[in-house]
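Protein modeling request. Please complete all fields; requests missing the sequence field cannot be processed.
Requester role: graduate student
Desired output: 3D structure, token encoding
Chains: 1
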Amino acid sequence: SSERPPKPKLPSRHEAVKSDRWKKAYRREIVKINEEAVMIGLSQTPSGKYIRPANAIVMKLLAIMEWKWRVDPDTDVEGWLECVRIVCDGSADKREGENTYAETPDRTLLFLMISIEATLGIKSKIGDAVRAYLNAPSLDKNLVVIADEMMTSGEGMERFDRESLLLKALYGSIKGAISFQVWADMKLAEINYLKCDVARGVYIKTIEDEVVRLYRHSDDFKISTSNNKHLDEEVEALQGKIRTTPFKPLSEFLGCTFARFDSKTMVKDETGDIQIVTMISHIEKMEKDYGHLRKHMNPTGRVRHTPFPLKPVLCDHEMTELQKQLIPEQDIKEYMSMVMSVQWVVQNVRPNLRFCHHVLAKRMSNPRVWDVYLSVWLLEHMILTKNWPLVLGGSVVDPEVHTDASFASMEERRSICGHTLRSGDKSGVVRSEVRTLKVAVTSVFEAENMGASDGMDTEMYANRVVDELQYPSLCSRKVYVDNTAAIDWMLGSVPSKRSKHMEVRLFRSRHLVARGDICMEYVPTKFNIADLLTKSLPRQDYERLSKMMLGHELIAPDLRYWEI
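Delivered output (564 residues):
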């Protein structure tokens, strides 16, 4: 992407109407929709009034203009091509009480599967549905769409009727995504895939004692199995039911770049035991979009070796008048955009920055100059460390959780809890969670117990996923805590008079330990990777724990491997 010329600026609608190239883009989209028989024109009365179905839901059609890097069908030259997507204006649909939610598996499930499959040497192939929603019949039988003048007229162009009944799940319709989900479930059932209950969005199938796992994220598919022959056969079977792009080995998926390696030789290998994940291009885009703030917030160009200063959360009396000043309203949108961009990177490949994002997100709607200063500090650190990968896999499948908590470190003396999940010892983290407790607690012991309770839920979920997807695992169910008092209380070995105020949910945690569902383990603070999620650390501690959290212990320490 760095070799591409800059993306052109989008024209106004008035300018696009006069442009022959944008007219062709309109025509390509209209031809595509007509080919798929998405709409059928409504009948009219003799006076020209359209006859709508009973209880009609009426929406306008919108034309979304965008530039895409594609081959121009007229010149066969690859470049920025004018593209138009016609969608429904779903904001007009205000109905309530109906299920319009399409399930989308979270990134924890995807990264957990990818990490485990790297450990087990399981290969994957990915592809996506062609004209995805246009495959699925609409779940609404009374949805009427109204086209604008550009879509109903034009010399030499195919066109829509002014009002039409929607037959397919057009993008933007409130049930479009769930229509595709229902249709895809039906097609996958026809080739004997069973839908999982815990691992939502995943389907499994057994062939000659080999398990095939199909992960679906909207219209994106990932098929994985340890048998190459079965992998190719299942790709072919899927393509016989759903139109897809050609399947290819896992390399780019859902915004991340993947590369499979053998950890001993650091040579690319599709069956290697580690998977390296990066988002370098996205960080470079952030540098381009928000780099202008750096000269204001860091005029001396100081190198940010840590993502935050040691004390990022300040009370009003600790800040200067400038630092606690609210930023102008016109700049709030840019701050929100930057924090959302940080979130996209953090939730995928940089779990070691989760605490930083949590602090910034708490001031999303009313940021101060101090918050902008922190966001730029974090951005500069991300740019400095953009080549740090997330390394998944390792030698063992044994999901484990690390938990930690700080005491009274946030506003109004509230504490913060965090926990991480990884697929096995030394693997990179596949899930990191941080939350500020809603009420203040009276001791670090209680905060640690709250954090451990959250971690137990994640550990139990991970083990249920492993069992349902039939991955071989040690299943030791370990939750690591660096507070011995919390472990003693979980084991029931301390007097109850000092903990009689504890919440019911924490007694549930004690019962899980007693029943054997969870194994509590002590870990020294210097090896507790969850420590990164609850506070800002000095550089030496930050880099040591980041290396562990990102799985860099699985690769050679030579930084040239970080350039992958």
